[in-house]
Write a structure and sequence with these properties.
By secondary structure, the chain is mainly alpha-helical. The protein has helices at residues 2-16, 20-23, 30-36, 62-67, and strands at 41-42, 59-60, 78-79. The protein starts with a helix and ends with a strand.
């Protein structure tokens, strides 16, 4: 009985974890990223560095941002931000 409960708990936990492909897609460039995320991707809590109206509609995801840090030219923790 105990091993059955443990196996069920482990199976449930595995199902809740997103796959690495889903969590960390690396895009070739900003054009490719904008097809799925039109306003870019950034870390939760990131703020757009701009003298105008900041972009606030970007996808917030630590894993996606980390997979695409090469596309964050101004180092504001948002890759490929676009209005």
């Amino acid at each position: 009985m105990r091993s059955t409960l443990l196996a069920a708990a482990v199976t449930a936990a595995v199902l809740l974890v997103p796959t690495s492909a889903e969590a960390a897609t690396t895009f070739k460039n900003c054009t490719e990223m904008h097809k799925k995320y039109p306003h870019g991707v950034g870390m939760p809590g990131a703020k757009d560095k701009t003298s105008g109206t900041p972009v606030t509609t970007f996808k917030r995801s630590k894993a996606l941002y980390q997979a695409n840090t090469k596309s964050d030219r101004d180092k504001d923790k948002i890759a490929c931000e676009k209005k």
